[in-house]
Amino acid sequence: MEPTREKLESAKALSKSTSEALSKAEQRASAARLRFDEARLELERAEADLQRVENESTAAEVQLKSAEEEHSRRLAQVRNIKSEKEREATSESRGKDRRAQPAVRDVSPLLFDDDGRRLPFSLPYIGPISISTSVVHGRGLVASRDIEAGECLFITRPVLSANVPQSRECFNRHSRCPTRYEPSYAGELEGYAEDTLLDELTCLSNILEDEELQTCENLDMARRIFGAFRAQMSSSDSAPAVHEMDVLLATGDHPVNLDTSEHYIEDEEALGIIRRNAFGPDFHNFDAIARRWTQTWPQEECFYNRILGVYPLAAMINHSCCPNAIRVFGTVPKSEIGTTVIDEECTGKDVMIVHASTKISRGEEIVWSYIPPCGPVQRRRHMLKKYGFVCECTRCAKELEVADKLIPTLETPDDQKPLIERIELALSNSGMPNECQRLLRVGYSTMYIDYFNAALRNMPNKNERGVSDLLKLATQLHFSFVQCNNACTEHISILHLCYELVSITHMNAKDGGERTKTTNLIRFWTEQLKRAHMVRYGELGHNLELVRKAMKHTQLVLRSDGGFFRVGCKFI
Ligand SMILES: C[S@@+](CC[C@H](N)C(=O)[O-])C[C@H]1O[C@@H](n2cnc3c(N)ncnc32)[C@H](O)[C@@H]1O
């Protein structure tokens, strides 16, 4: 009996101490839970604070940037006024020497017929460049000082020109069935334009041969143009660079001494020079033009004047797939005589305007891409065969190094996934450095654009997930273009697309936090668009009004049938 009671007592004691321990443990656990909840709250508060600080700092950065821009714009204005006054003061002493006129750094607004800004301007405009006979590939242009992205390098007129009416007439006369487009028409159109240039050269040769055709003006012009052709043909070390510059520009005040036997150039040789020296319209390729011309398409809707032009100075520029310069074409606006300083002789003239597409250091060579820079390396090499060389720029070398790694993954025959999704998957599994991935992406950009078009079409209610996935992809492509210094049409259309996608996100954003995020995104993409337009059209980025005009201009082009992308949003 006794031992049983003892056992009972000790069991009771044990149970009591166990339940005391349990309740203590529960107390500790609930205190710990309390501390954990407090810590979590604290963390959430800290995260929210961090987000707010980040948002504020982005907004502050944007504000600071626009303040800096405003400041440098004002400074530039003040400097312009000052240097204009200095120019006025010294212009008399300079007499009629046009080449001595002080440099105007940017005349790009001329492209947009900006009546508000008066510029002392005459053609050609030569910026911070000079001809060098000792670059890697023979002769070339080099920067004569440090140059900022978007700065104007030079503006010239064509010395020979195949204009739209002539070329169109020739095209319609020769096309076998002008109402139905055939792929060969694009090549034919280019050929007709080249023949037109050859005819122009023959006319000039006739002037030099036949005294009855000669007037003071056309004789001098004919001599200069032949001089420019001769300069192109001469070997790199034959002519002194300064004199060559005058000849190449078909300008300058001293007469060109041309041996009478020098004005004759064999057709085949001349055609060869024309092919290396002629430049076509900016946003359009021959395929797009030929396609249009087989439809009833009014002449007035044409926003380029010429199919091909010969620009000897521009033809001094060597090729790179990672260019640092870009060209656009425009017409110098007409202006009332007496109210503007634009040289009367320049108005209505067709010009090529060349800008820096990135920073260029003094002495660095000016290079641009001879072909659309958006194809993969193999296609670019194929297209460059026409120019008789194999490009060995850093982009080509890097792409060749990694392309083989990617291509086998893309060639799975039974893979039904769209190409871009396969490319992205292959890239993310490739282990390649970001830089190489970006270079490869630019090669496929036309397909990316098709993919974006199709994705937007198939997304009628524009759901948030789909839009943000597209935006991520478009952002990658934007940075890829930046990596190659390309301010090409495809790049601008990608920026327009990003802007459109962000606007959709903004419309979809419900609460305040989401709206702040998308407002910051809109600011970011507005900056990117401004910068790209600045690079494409010169220092426009400093003036919002001109950016708006530039955007309207590219929007018009991108929306046209020949453009790359149709954009629907309004900007800024
Ligand atoms: C329009 S010209 C450029 C000026 C030329 N360097 C000169 O001395 O007259 C084009 C020619 O320059 C050469 N060239 C230009 N870019 C090149 C490159 N990246 N690699 C090799 N040769 C190049 C090729 O011979 C090409 O046919």
Report what the structure shows.
This protein is of the alpha+beta class and 572 residues long. It has helices at 2-94, 164-174, 184-209, 216-233, 241-248, 267-277, 286-293, 377-384, 394-410, 419-430, 434-443, 445-457, 464-483, 489-508, 512-537, 544-559, and strands at residues 125-126, 129-135, 138-143, 152-156, 160-163, 278-279, 306-310, 318-319, 325-331, 350-356, 365-368. A four-stranded antiparallel beta sheet has the order 1-4-10-9. Strands 2-3-11-8 form a four-stranded mixed beta sheet. It has a three-stranded antiparallel beta sheet with strand order 5-7-6. Helix 3 (184-209) crosses helix 7. The N and C termini lie far apart (96 Å). The relative contact order is 0.10. The model is unreliable at 84-104, 236-242 and 336-340 (pLDDT under 50). The structure holds S-adenosylmethionine (SAM). S-adenosylmethionine binds next to strand 3 and strand 8. S-adenosylmethionine (SAM) binds at residues 137-140, 236, 276, 315-316, 318-320, 387-389, 391.
Keywords:
572 residues, alpha+beta, Beta-clip-like, four-stranded antiparallel β-sheet, 16 helices, 9% strand, elongated, binds S-adenosylmethionine
Brief account:
The chain is of the alpha+beta class and 572 residues long. The protein has four domains: 26-95; 101-157 and 311-371, Beta Complex (Beta-clip-like); 162-302, no CATH class; 377-559, no CATH class. It has helices at residues 2-94, 164-174, 184-209, 216-233, 241-248, 267-277, 286-293, 377-384, 394-410, 419-430, 434-443, 445-457, 464-483, 489-508, 512-537, 544-559, and strands spanning 125-126, 129-135, 138-143, 152-156, 160-163, 278-279, 306-310, 318-319, 325-331, 350-356, 365-368.
